[in-house]
């Protein structure tokens, strides 16, 4: 193992591949992390952090396990059947299933967010509000599998050196672990961001389905759109915060004026009594 790592340490191309792969793995991990954050925020507060860390830990285990059977994993891209001239591999089927699950889950959450009143609609059942950690962990595992396969196959396409893949995965998951609580708390404290994050998951689900059917959408476009939307939402949040501060300042000024009027009235009444 050391014999295979030592030459890489002095190879500039290997370092460039490592940095590029780390950035790519971190970006791909954002999708995973958004889903874990939204799902964990629906749990009782004392369970949230534990479930988030467990979900990210499972993501790491799955990625490392897939790296250990990388030869088998690469075989998943081989076609297994053809429909109307379109060849489908196990990877395609997994991406389609994962995309459908994401679209279904994001649609349910969006429906519940815009129409929180209970109804008998099939999209608004009580199970939208996850009340136990087991259900949350099960759903996180399903998406961890999809995101892990996508992540490792991306790594395979960028480098052939297993040590570089392992280091990139470890760094990316460490970043996810450090960002999990701040991201989840930020989403929980800003309701408008929840809808934006659900929109991201919906878009990611559609991209996974498109990839499964052979229509590759460059991820750069997807993340550029997400960054632009997040920037617009940040401006909206700054605007709302500024408006709130202005209202508070006006309210404080109004209270001060009212207090001054009362003080003047009290002084006038006191002067009248003395006169």
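-> sequence recovered:
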């Amino acid at each position: 193992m050391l014999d295979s790592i030592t030459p890489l340490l002095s190879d500039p191309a290997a370092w460039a591949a490592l940095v590029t792969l780390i950035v790519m793995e971190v970006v791909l991990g954002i999708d995973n992390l958004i889903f874990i954050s939204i799902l964990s925020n629906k749990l009782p507060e004392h369970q949230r952090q534990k479930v988030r860390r467990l979900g990210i830990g499972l993501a790491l285990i799955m990625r490392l396990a897939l790296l250990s059977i990388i030869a088998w994993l690469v075989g998943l891209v081989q076609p297994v059947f053809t429909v109307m001239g379109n060849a489908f591999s196990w990877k395609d089927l997994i991406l389609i299933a994962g995309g459908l699950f994401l679209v279904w889950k994001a649609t349910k959450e969006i429906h519940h967010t815009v129409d929180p009143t209970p109804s008998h609609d099939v999209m608004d059942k009580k199970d939208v509000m996850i009340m136990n950690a087991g259900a949350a962990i099960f759903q996180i595992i399903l998406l961890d599998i999809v995101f892990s396969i996508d992540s490792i196959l991306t790594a395979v396409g960028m480098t052939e050196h297993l040590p570089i893949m392992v280091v990139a995965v470890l760094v990316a998951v460490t970043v996810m672990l450090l960002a999990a609580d701040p991201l989840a708390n930020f989403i929980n404290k800003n309701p408008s961001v929840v809808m934006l994050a659900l929109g991201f998951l919906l878009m990611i689900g559609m991209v996974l389905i498109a990839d499964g059917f052979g229509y590759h959408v460059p991820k750069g476009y997807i993340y550029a759109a997400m960054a632009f939307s997040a920037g617009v939402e940040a401006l909206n949040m700054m605007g709302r915060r500024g408006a709130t501060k202005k209202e508070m300042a006006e309210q404080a000024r109004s209270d001060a004026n009212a207090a001054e009027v009362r003080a003047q009235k009290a002084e006038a009444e006191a002067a009248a009594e003395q006169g």
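Strands lie at 79-83, 86-89.
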